[in-house]
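Priority: low. Protein: Protein odr-4 homolog. Input follows.
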Amino acid sequence: MGRTYFVEEAVGQYLSGLSAKLRPYITGLLIGQCSAQRDYVIRAVRTPPKEEQKEDAPSPKLASIDEEWITTHASQVSRMLPGGLLVLGVFIIVTPELAKESQNALRKLVFAVEKALTRRRLWKPVEEEVSDRAALQICSATKKVVCRTYDVQDPKSSAKPADWKYQSALSASWPALDCTVNVNIHIPLLATSPNHDLEKNTKNGLNRWSKQIEDSVFLINGRVKDGDTELLEGQKKLKGNTQSSTQFSDVKVLTQLSQGSSPRSTATVQVCSGSINLRGAVKCRAYVHNNKPKVKEALQALKRDIINTLSDRCEILFEDLIINEGPRKKSFEREYHVLPQRLFVPVAGSTVMLSDYKFGDEAAGEIQERFVEMLDQSVQPEDIHVAEEANT
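Result:
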């Protein structure tokens, strides 16, 4: 049996709109959520055109597909997804002449995108992780849809057929978990570390911190819940309320003070030339499908959001420093940098909100431009909800 993809009807309308454009091919990403039984696709996003392509149509040969451009786009988009959402696969809309060779191009893209996304992750996949990713092909002339999956854990994986089923209001009532995590991470910079490699040291420090988050205790609405129970167990649905409304669960994170069960621990003495301190309160959020979700699914999505939101912000800050200040010089002075703040933007017809980050001096217009470029979504300034205070 192949996998079944339940797809938001708006995704079908979006793909139809793209296939009406007279182009040899259009590529893009599929965004949604995996679960053991079925997968959910709530967004499709076309690959943004490169500056030089904006005037001309892309080359009619599939060999000209820019793999690096597509994987860079996937990495940028993954930063804008809250917990529970991920890049589920890749789509291509092609003319009948290119249909045959497009399957091979799709396969390469599915593996390339997954490799790029895995490289950035600080969390470890669990044993029962779904590793199938979708490769969707649409013929621009006949509108025929062919969906296949590849197991991205197996480089020799062959295509398996999958069902592609449209459904209305698919994510109109997905429950959400919300939490604020107070961060105070101290990362020593070893004297032996070459040229104060801040980015590498920060990533190592975040790696250690992410293991603490994985081992933390999570209270949902003030209670510890068994992982195999249903998340919404005991929560009554409001009768007669057909409006899409989010059921929010408030989560508290209790990190353990000591690691490991042994009361004895060994201390390491290291010669340091400085340190990095990450301090502040970060807003974290995860969404989970409403088909009897388990507590462990929801908490796994939230843990990943906590880890992602901090590592993504550090990445964004370092990129910004490189653009604005050039290569980092050795500095023995105390420096303060404010990490970008998190914001959320609603998705039409869904309770799910997409995420992004803004520096204090960034105008709403820049955020609007980014949503159009990365997610092909126009956003009104009043729909941009900044979720937190600025953090150092």
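The chain is about 25% helix and 30% strand. Residues 176-231+247-257+270-326+336-386 form one domain.
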